[in-house]
Amino acid sequence: MFKKLVAIEPVNITPECKSELADYAEELTFYDDMPKDNGEIIRRIGDADAVLVSYTSRIDGEVLKACPGVRYVGMCCSLYAPEAANVDIRTADSLGIVVKGVRDYGDEGVPEYVVSELVRLLHGFGGVMWKDAPMELTGVNIGVMGLGTSGTFVARALRFFGANVYYYTRTRKEDLEKELGLVYLSKEELLKKVDILCTCLNKNVILLDEEAFKTFGDGKILVNTSIAPSHEIGALKKWLKNPGNFALCDTVGGLGDPELASFPNVFCGGGPAAGTTSLAKVRLSRKVIDNIKNFLENR
After folding, report:
1. Which of 39, 131, 161, 222 has the largest count of CB atoms under 10 Å?
2. Do the beta carbons of residue 231 and residue 256 sit within 8 Å?
3. Within its chain, how far is the Cα of 74 from the centroid?
């Protein structure tokens, strides 16, 4: 067992799993607000040997070095690569601290968000319509940047509704091309070809700069499903000066600047992310517990 486990911020796990954590730590502390700075994070961790963190706070090298008792950090959020993580993975490795994250827990809600928002805008159900007449998704050229789990779900849903789906990713997915009828294009070819672009990228991966928006052109729709911007903020603001361009995002964090949410051609949910449904919370909780069990059993 751990001697002391501290969740330094709200970690979005179920009450049942919070209770279950008592089987793995002698002492539990859960904070229900976000820490203001590193000093607050260090005070909250104190002498704990295990820490839980969500995606909203950062545990950097300064924090890890100031808390020598920590031997395990559980990320109650996605972990794909060190450079995209909100925990300093490399410093943790150098200190012998194990960091575990989770994957594939909130992806199912993402295609529902994408289809819902596009249908509203194409048909004009929300009072604003993309073109002069209502449109279906059928036959529309849509691009997907990033074909991980959520990107694949989005592509699959759009194909179901009859869209022509093109994609760009670092690793070509020929099996999905055959299964779903997707077409692989280079980044530049994709931007020229499609009228709607969905970015389903890891945090801190920015592929859309001013030149990319010029290539994409006007009269288009950008949908970002990432928890952080897939674009340079200034470049997006400049592109949105054309009222015929639209940006859709489920969170302000995905826009990158709260000012963007006030633009008339930006539609932002502003609430919980599409991947934070009640079912996603259950999946997340189970994976957090499983990571802790595996760590303690194999230490």
Report:
1. 222
2. yes
3. 17
**Ramachandran angles phi, psi of 81, nearest 5°:** -155, 150
* Whole-angstrom distance, CA of residue 9 vs CA of residue 235: 33
Q: pTM surpassing 0.90?
A: no
Superfamily of domain 109-268: NAD(P)-binding Rossmann-like Domain (3.40.50.720)
SS3 category, 20:
helix
What the block records as the tokens of 12 is 């979005």
* Tokens coding 288: 């957090």
Residue written as token pair 């859709």: 248
Question: Is there a common fold for 2-103+278-298 and 109-268?
Answer: yes
Q: 3, 45 in Cβ contact below 8 A?
A: no
> How far, in Å, are 74, 182, 242 from residue 82 at the CA level?
14, 30, 37
In angstroms, the CA 224 to CA 169 distance is 15
pLDDT tens digits, one per residue of 194-219: 999 999 998 889 999 999 999 999 99
Q: How far does CA 42 lie from the centroid of its chain?
A: 26
Domain boundaries, the chain: 2-103+278-298, 109-268
> Do 145 and 196 contact (CB within 8 A), yes or no?
no
Which residue stretches of the chain are H helix? Answer: 15-20, 38-45, 61-66, 89-94, 109-123, 149-160, 174-180, 187-193, 210-216, 233-239, 252-255, 278-298
CB neighbourhood size of 136 (10 A): 12
Question: In CATH, what number does 2-103+278-298 get?
Answer: 3.40.50.720
Mean pLDDT of 79-88: 83
DSSP letter at 249 equals: E
